[in-house]
Amino acid sequence: MLIVAIPTHERIVVPIRLAIAAVRLQGETISAEAEELVVRLFRAEGRSLVRLARLFVDDRDAAEDLVQEAFLRLARHAGRIETVERAPAYLRSIVLNLARDHNRRGLVSLRHHATRGREVDVGDDAADQLVRTEEHRRVLDAVRRLPARQRDCITLRYFEERPIDEIASMLEVSVNSVKTHLRRAMATLDRALGEA
Hints:
Blueprint (H helix, E strand, L loop, with lengths): L12 H13 L6 H25 L3 H17 L10 H19 L20 H5 L3 H11 L3 H12 L4 H8 L3 H21 L1
Helix pairs in contact: 1-2, 1-3, 2-3, 2-4, 3-4, 4-8, 6-9, 7-9, 8-9
């Protein structure tokens, strides 16, 4: 019997394809192109999305689970993707919403600490290196204490380096609203980090 090892970061591709197959069995029309788009998005955006989730949750496993769930949700609705260019922003929105829910419920992991079969492999990435130093930990803790919309804007602007108009589109708010949230968040962070 020949056993073929699937690289850890490719293991999510199997559940993505299975989720799409299940939706097709329920009568949903998902083209092969839409299916391949979801797989390509995973390969292109997966690591970045885990880094984004990692900024919101302390638990690395939970961050990986959040991203996996985001891709599975996208896979289940792949037939409805109208604008390919908007799909990465849509994924980031899903991850942000899942991270908010995770923190709101105080969950430690969507899989209750399952450590086997990690579906998303994100080596030793920048977010993990970032939280190693005490100064960066203080910054991340202060960012995590911000109100949700301010935290989203700060994270997307300064950690993900997204333009303001893209943030506005992703969060479905006006450009001026994003600027206001950024200004308020920066003032709060200045006070919080200045006191420490």
